[in-house]
Every structure is written in C-alpha cells, then in structure tokens.
Specification:
With about 300 residues, the protein is an alpha/beta fold. The protein is about 45% helix and about 15% strand. The protein has an eight-stranded parallel sheet. A two-stranded antiparallel sheet has the order 6-7. The chain is globular.
Length: about 300
C-alpha cells in the first residue's frame, strides 16, 4: 500500500471511511456499552466494520479506539487493558485493510477538562495519550487521527504525544458548531485558529469531522483553507441528527452527500470521508463521485 503522501501525490482526493459507532450498533452494540470492549470480545465484528469500508473503496480506514484513553476506559473498568485494546484494534483494521488501504488509529477526546478549567494537568493528558500512541505504533498503524476535538489544549497534548512516540503522519481534526458569530468549537476555537495552531503544533494534516452535514462542512473547510497550506481532512455527518421514535437518525442519503462532494473539494478538502450516520454506501458513493471527477 502507498504511504499517505504517495496517495496525495497520485490522487486529487483520497477517500476515508465512514462512521464506526452506528456500524457497531447494527452488529449488536448496546446503548451504553463501550465500543472498545468489542476489540476483545467481538473482534470479528470490529474487523468486519473495517472490511466493509475497504470494500466500499475507502483508502484510509480507522480503528475502534475512539474512546481508548485511560480516562475513558476507566469508566468501563478496562483501564488495565489499554495497551491490549489499542494495539489489537490496529491489528484488526490492518488485517482487513491488507494492501488496499492505510490504517489510521483513532484518538478521541478523553472527556476530561484540562487545568485550569478541570483537574487534569497537561502532563497527565500527554501521558494518557502517549499510552494509546505507543500501543498503536506497536500494532503497526500507518498514521494517527486525533479527532472530534473541541479544546485546542487537549488536541495539542495529543499532538505532543504523537511527536514523541510515533513516526508516521498525524491528522488533527476538530468539531465546530455554527452560532450567531459563525463557526467555533464549544470551547470557542474558530476553524481558522484551529488550522493555524494545529499546523504550528506539528500536525501533518488538519481538518474537521462531525458537527454537521456536508453542506455546512463546506463552509468550515473554506475557513480552514484560508489559514493553512497543509492537506485538509473532512468527515461530515450524514446530515443533522433527528430524533425519530426515540432513536437518533441521520437522514442524508449517499446520493445527497455525493452531490456536494465537488463543493467540498473546491473548498479545499483533500481527504474526504464520513462521520456520524454514514455507512459503507455513503463511502462508495463518494468514491464513485471522485472517480467520475478524475476521468
């Protein structure tokens, strides 16, 4: 398989995978059950999610490690298995990807606030991320994805951990909401600020995931592109979440998402996939749209 730089050099746009949580739910993950526990207990189902995205045309697939930090795993009494979970999750995705796709290990927010807003020191945050990164490197990850971040300090702590313990490419992706004053994270970070400061902190790729559907993501990526010369990562949801009969659903179809693909490319995105509510069918539609644009 090519490296990320080779993919970017050889293709106008690289296709990443889609949502993991909803795919695991379809396979039986119960509400409140830790997805990371399935790395140990339902490994074939976890591998199956990665395989479904490879089959759909994704050139980058993630791992079932979004909540794999010490802080998150402690809440489900799995903090004594941090190394095993993070390493094994990478191995499962690598097995599915084979030579067809790169595996970028997912690092999500810890759910904790850093000092002075919270009780976790910068050193403690860096060490928590370092535990994950060391295990992901041992599992053979091709790259790392720091995703769904809202606090720039936490994102930079994760980047610090990757700098010290990982030699491959690192993506830093934040989540923005649209308010009266425009787009910002819940901690007040704008897309332009995020792009510039994540680049200066050592990210190889910057971008955004979650938060909204592809139409709004176009606006976020346009703003980020004004502040960085790095490749930009974009993973929108399948529309905005709606509550239907007590269930959260995302109603943007694969075709509707693919219809905005060109707009996202024009905004500056180089790596495009999907977040909440997206399926292998969404990723296949994006890959097909990309292939048509390339002909």
């Amino acid at each position: 398989m090519n490296t990320l730089q080779e993919l970017l050099d050889n293709r106008r746009i690289v296709i990443a995978d889609g949502a993991w949580g909803t795919q695991l739910s379809q396979r039986g993950l119960e509400p409140g059950e830790a997805p990371e526990s399935w790395v140990l207990e339902r490994s074939e189902a976890v591998r199956g999610v990665a395989q479904s995205y490879v089959d759909a045309g994704a050139e980058i697939v993630l791992t079932n490690t979004f909540g794999g930090s010490r802080f998150k795993l402690a809440k489900c009494q799995l903090d004594d298995r941090i190394e095993e979970i993070n390493r094994r999750a990478v191995e499962l995705s690598k097995d599915a990807a084979g030579d067809a796709a790169l595996v970028f290990a997912s690092i999500g927010p810890t759910g904790e606030f850093m000092q002075p807003l919270g009780t976790v020191s910068e050193e403690e945050m860096i060490e928590a991320f370092s535990e994950q990164v060391r295990a992901m490197a041992a599992g053979g990850a091709d790259g790392l994805l720091i995703e769904t971040m809202t606090d720039l300090g936490e994102a930079k702590a994760a980047l610090r951990a990757t700098t010290e313990h990982f030699e491959g490419p690192v993506v830093a992706s934040m989540t923005f909401d649209r308010g009266p004053k425009g787009y910002a994270t819940m901690m007040g970070v704008t897309p332009e600020e995020a792009a510039a400061r994540l680049q200066s902190a050592g990210a190889d790729v910057v971008g955004s995931n979650c938060g909204h559907g592809i139409a709004n993501m176009v606006e976020v990526i346009e703003l980020m592109a004004q502040a960085t010369d790095l490749p930009i990562w974009a993973k929108p949801n399948a529309g905005m979440p709606e509550l239907v009969a007590g269930q959260t659903v995302f109603n943007e179809s694969p075709g509707e998402m693919a219809a905005h693909f060109g707009d996202l490319v024009d905004a500056g995105a180089r790596i495009i996939g999907g977040c909440c509510g997206t399926t292998p069918e969404h990723i296949r539609a994006l890959a097909e749209k990309r292939d048509v644009m390339d002909t």
